[in-house]
Design goal:
This is Guanylate cyclase domain-containing protein. It comes from Pedobacter segetis. InterPro entries: A/G_cyclase (IPR001054), Nucleotide_cyclase (IPR029787). Keywords: Membrane, Transmembrane, Transmembrane helix. By secondary structure, this protein is an alpha+beta fold. The protein folds into 2 domains: 166 residues, no CATH class; 186 residues, Nucleotide cyclase, GGDEF domain (Alpha-Beta Plaits), CATH 3.30.70. A hairpin with a 2-residue loop joins strand 2 and strand 3. The radius of gyration is 27 Å and the shape is elongated.
Length: 374
């Protein structure tokens, strides 16, 4: 059984955001400090040979210190990222966030060094490995190591922040395949796409004004994000008041979950009607078109990069969604998608026959989808 790494990573990141934030930071910093321990070890061996001095040959103590520093620093920054950035500083000035983070980083570095020096080294490593020997680390050496570590951490922070920003931009679970070159060249995939478009968007925009309308869209997309995780949908892109999501069929055990996702979104906004009316003055509802087919996925752009899907499947899905107003439908799917759905009694699918789609010569058979009433 093949595991969908991207979908599982997204699901875990949304279900356990605090653990995910700590895990990402800790993983990066443990690896970073481990590399620092190797650098220090080989540098010390080199100087020992040059100046003909005897130093401890075991790398184990310095690895223990480095891993401990990575864990302490990673956990601290993970908590900072979650509580300061995602909670307390959400929507606040980026400059203020940078200042607060910088102060926090410096204070954590001081506390971490004190802990490593007094506890890990003084009470554990020195008595275990060096008691009874002539080896010790004077205060001047600790001061120099502190300066070295600060320089190293400064540059590693830039690199790690870059990777975290890339992970944030493309979404959890995409960074690893991206680094492995999965999307460097066009890659064919079979996917189910859904185009969700806000109903009466022009009316809402005129009534609310562009600022309040943008807040409405922001809240709608945020809640669709949360729902998408439960149903394994991958968010492809946002286009104005429309959001495009997809499912790779290779990892989809039950295609019916794609219809379940739409009606979960539909029911969510109905359930939260009073909240949206109070906050925004309107009740958002989305119309949708769905289709299945082959697409190519490839990393595009230079100044601004992103992973893009190309193919007729996307065009057909967009044209199907555009038929919602004409047919007075909330959800329309293609016959290609209907044929792979298992037998069920939840949804009533009414054939609309072959219909012409704008810009396409070949007609497509489509179905209106409604929930069967008991």
């Amino acid at each position: 059984m093949k595991i969908n790494y991207t979908a599982n990573a997204r699901k875990y990141a949304f279900q356990y955001p605090l653990i995910s934030a700590i895990f990402i930071q800790t993983s990066f910093w443990v690896i970073s400090f481990f590399f620092l321990s190797l650098i220090l070890h080989f540098a010390a061996n080199g100087f020992a040979k040059i100046y003909h001095v005897v130093i401890p040959s075991s790398i184990k103590p310095i690895v223990i210190i480095s891993v401990a520093m990575g864990l302490l620093y990673g956990i601290s920054l993970g908590l900072l990222d979650f509580y300061f950035y995602r909670r307390l500083f959400k929507g606040k000035s980026t400059g203020l966030l940078i200042v607060v983070k910088s102060i926090f980083y410096f204070l954590m570095m001081i506390l971490m060094f004190y802990f490593v020096k007094e506890i890990i080294w003084g009470r554990f490593l020195y008595p275990t490995y060096f008691l009874g020997t002539k080896f010790n680390l004077p205060e001047q050496a600790w001061a120099d190591y502190f300066k070295l570590t600060m320089v190293y951490v400064f540059f590693m922070s830039i690199i790690i922040s870059f990777f975290i920003q890339v992970n944030t931009k493309f979404g959890p679970g995409v960074l690893v395949p991206l680094l492995m070159g999965r999307y460097a060249n066009p890659k064919e995939e079979e996917r189910i796409f859904i185009f969700l478009d806000l109903k009466s968007s022009t009316t809402h925009a005129e009534k609310l004004g562009h600022i309040k309308y943008s807040k409405l869209i922001r809240d709608c997309f945020l809640h669709i994000n949360y729902i998408s995780v439960k149903y394994g949908a991958e968010i492809y892109q946002y286009v104005g008041d429309e959001v495009v999501l997809s499912w790779p069929t290779k990892h989809l055990s039950n295609p019916l979950i794609t219809l379940d996702f739409y009606f979960a979104c539909y029911n969510y906004f109905i359930e939260k009607k009073s909240r949206y009316l109070k906050k925004h003055g309107v009740l958002p509802q989305f119309k949708a078109g769905m289709h299945i087919g082959k697409v190519t996925a490839v990393e595009v752009g230079d100044v601004k990069r992103e992973i893009a899907f190309h193919g007729d499947t996307l065009n057909v899905t967009a044209r199907i969604q555009a038929k919602c107003n004409e047919l007075d439908a909330d959800l329309i799917i293609s016959e290609d998608l209907k044929t792979i759905l298992p037998d069920q009694k939840t949804y009533n699918m009414v054939s609309q026959g072959l219909v012409p789609l704008k810009g396409r010569k070949q007609e497509v058979c489509i179905y209106k989808v409604m929930v069967d009433q008991p």
